[in-house]
Amino acid sequence: MIGSAKLQRIAEVVMVLGIIALCQPWNLFLHRYGLTIIIVGLLTFMFTGWFGKPAEDKEKTDGVFDVSDHHDGTVHGGRS
Q: Is the pLDDT of residue 59 over 80?
């Protein structure tokens, strides 16, 4: 079974290839079905986002500052 992250990456590549197929002037078949290729990639990307594995614990910030932790310059809990 293909993992959801890998399937999303494949869908992104399909969308880019659809844009290339739509913009190229040499092959009428690719130009005709370029929009269809983009839509298939988009739907695949959306469905893997909805039905893929649930995201892991979102509480891990990995050292990123969260604005909701800042309370007007005061220390959380009322201490100064």
A: no
Distances (CA, A) of 28 to 23, 25, 33, 41: 11, 7, 9, 20
Taking only Cα atoms into account, the Rg of the chain, rounded to an integer number of angstroms, comes to: 22
In angstroms, the first-to-last Cα distance of the chain is 54
User: Sign of the CA dihedral 13, 16, 24, 33?
Assistant: positive
* Residue where the block lists tokens 């695949």: 44
* Block residue for tokens 């800042």: 70
Q: What is the pLDDT of residues 21-46, one digit of tens each?
A: 999 999 999 999 999 999 999 999 99
Distance between CA atoms of residues 63 and 70, nearest Å: 15
